[in-house]
Structure formats: structure tokens, C-alpha cells
Automatic annotation (TrEMBL):
InterPro entries: Asp/Glu/hydantoin_racemase, Asp/Glu_race, Asp_race. This is Aspartate racemase. The lineage of its organism: Bacteria, Pseudomonadati, Pseudomonadota, Alphaproteobacteria, Hyphomicrobiales. It comes from the Bacteria. One of its GO terms (molecular function) is amino-acid racemase activity. Keywords: Isomerase. Belongs to the aspartate/glutamate racemases family. It holds the Pfam family Asp_Glu_race. PANTHER family: ASPARTATE-GLUTAMATE RACEMASE FAMILY (PTHR21198:SF7), GLUTAMATE RACEMASE (PTHR21198). It comes from Rhizobium hidalgonense.
Amino acid sequence: MDTIGLIGGMSFESSAVYYRLVNEMVRARKGGLASAELILHSVNFEAIVALQKAGDWDMAARRLADVALRLQVGGAGCVLICTNTMHLIADEVAAKISVPLIHIIDETAKSLHAAGRKRPLLLATRYTMEHGFYAERMKGLGIDIMVPDAADRTTVHDIIFNELCAGRVHDSSREKLIDIIDRAVDNGADSIILGCTEICLILDPNRLPLPGFDTTAIHARAAVEFALGAEEEVEEEAA
């Protein structure tokens, strides 16, 4: 089993979900008391948020690249940035390490393609919805995403940062998100991307008006597939 390297803490609420999902998936695959070989480096989210607000993505890239390299030196066979927003600088981080960086957008696009969905609504932070990196990479992978209008983007962003990242889940906010999804249905969306790793705390992807794609679960599953892939190939050859 390869060791999975997680860059977490953005926020730690979703990092805890990653840790649980990865271990549950390994146990489901291997049985018994099996759990994942992983290294989690959790950063101070307050410092990362300050860089986001300042638009200092170069410094953010250097910070996460340093963490990724530490994970590699510590034995990680792959690295995950456990947040959608910071994939804005994923290419810079990947360039600093020699092990694979498992990209959350690429893995989400694979899941959308497998389900035959091409016009998803993206619910995420303002940075992810507005900066362009997410839409551009998705378009290059054959997916044409939709985003909410400006007022609704503010609503989603504020729910993420002011509530979910602080460990608060409110029914009233869930209702606001469902209203946004209902409007997207009317505008031709064929699916929903839970494009922030905290949104799974408030929305169940299986209980939405359209098929939901939880990027946290998709990303965790890709890590487990990578970590167990080589081991299971060897087991098959031995059999």
C-alpha cells in the first residue's frame, strides 16, 4: 500500500472528512481492521485565507509546495491538496515534487463523464467560481460548468467561510443552497458539483434535485485507488 500525503487544514473541518473517508474506503476494500497508510500535514488556515484575500497566490503556491515536498520526503507516494480553491496553484505545487499530485478537478471530470453529465452547476468559494482556473480546466476536459449569479455566489461563499469552515451547519443555509440549485435546474444544469470540500457537510449529493458530485469523496476515492492499485496488481499476479 502506497502512503497517501494529504495537505489539509483548509479547513480542518473537511480534512477530518478526508481522513475518515480514506480510511473507510481502505477498510471496505481490504476488510478486517485495515486502514490507510497516510501522512496529514495540516496548515494554519488563517494564514492561507490571508493570502487568498490579498491575492498573493505566488506565496500560497510556495507555502503549499513546501508542504508537498515535506510529505514526499516523509514517504508519501502521492499528494492531495484537500481543498478545491487551492488547486488554483496546483500546477506550481506539482512542479516541486516528483510523486503524482492527484488533481481534484481532473478526478471530478472523470466522474462527470462516467455519468454522462456535461453541464454541471458549480457550488464553491468565490475564488473557485470566479477566478477562471476551474472553468478553464473543466472546459479542457469536455465539461461546461455553470456558476450561480453574483448574489448567489456571495451567498454560497459566505455559507462556506462564515459557517461550514467554522463547524456550523444551519438548516436555513441548506434551504438557500437548494433554492440556488432549483434556479440552476430551470437554467439547464444537468448536475451539481459540490466544489468546496466543506459543502458535503451541509448537502447530501444523493438528495438533490439533480445528480450530485461530492468532490471530497471523489478525491478521497482517487487517492485510495492509487494507494491500493500497485498492491492489488501484485496480489493478482501472485495468484
